[in-house]
Amino acid sequence: MDKAMKIHFDNLDSKDKNEQYEAFNHIITAIEHEVDWAYEVWDELVAGLSSTDNHMRSRYAQFLSGLSKSDHDKRIMNDFPALWQVTKDEKFVTARHALQSIWKVGLAGPEQKEMVVHHLANRFKNCKDEKNYTLIRFDIIQDLRNLYDEVKDEHIKKLAEELIEMEEDPKYQKKYAKVWKDYYSTLK
After folding, report:
1. Could you give the 3-state DSSP secondary structure of residue 53?
2. Is 158 exposed, middle or buried (0-12, 13-18, 19+ CB in 10 A)?
3. What is the spatial distance between Cα 141 and Cα 124, in angstroms, rounded to a whole number?
4. CA 185 to CA 118: how far, in whole Å?
5. Is the pLDDT of residue 39 over 70?
């Protein structure tokens, strides 16, 4: 890891909120592509998923999701349960940030993709008792769309369509279907 990236990680703990935000954005931008320093921060990020600081849990979940494509040792396969747990965080905004980025784990390879898709589908089917479940379902459908756009796996598209069909409320069914514009036209 170069000196500038180390500074960005250090600045996540800055007292200055603008400095924290700038550091977060630099890291998010850097991990859009594979990096060679993922394992230099991996263990710290995994440990931070259970921090008492919800901002840290949120950031670290987003970072781990993005770094998964740089995880050639497939550590995410063992660390995924801790990452997934953040998608159910007591702070809804933290949970939502984690959920909205977790699809990136699926970019790491076929096993990781299958694991993420399986978890997303199960969550969609079983989240009705959760607070804000319609937002959770929306995020899951968006995650599937994001992953599909990157990997072009027709199984993901078919699964999303099946999940959308499961929604009983026509208002939400249409809202979810809008994420898949080509599918939306069939529900009008």
Report:
1. coil
2. exposed
3. 8
4. 26
5. yes
| 187: exposed, middle or buried (Cβ count in 10 Å: 0-12, 13-18, 19+) | middle
CATH fold label, 31-187: Leucine-rich Repeat Variant (1.25.10)
CA angle 96-9-87, nearest 5°?
Answer: 15
Distance from C-alpha of 188 to C-alpha of 184, rounded to nearest angstrom: 7
What percent of the chain is predicted at pLDDT more than 90?
A: 95
156-162: long-range pairs with CB below 8 Å, 24+: 156/117, 157/183, 159/117, 159/121
Q: What is the pTM of this model?
A: 0.92
Among the residues of the chain, which ranges form H helices? Answer: 3-11, 17-30, 38-48, 54-67, 76-86, 92-101, 110-126, 133-151, 154-166, 170-178, 181-184
Burial class (CB in 10 A: 0-12, 13-18, 19+), 99: buried
Whose tokens are 């997303």? That residue is: 120
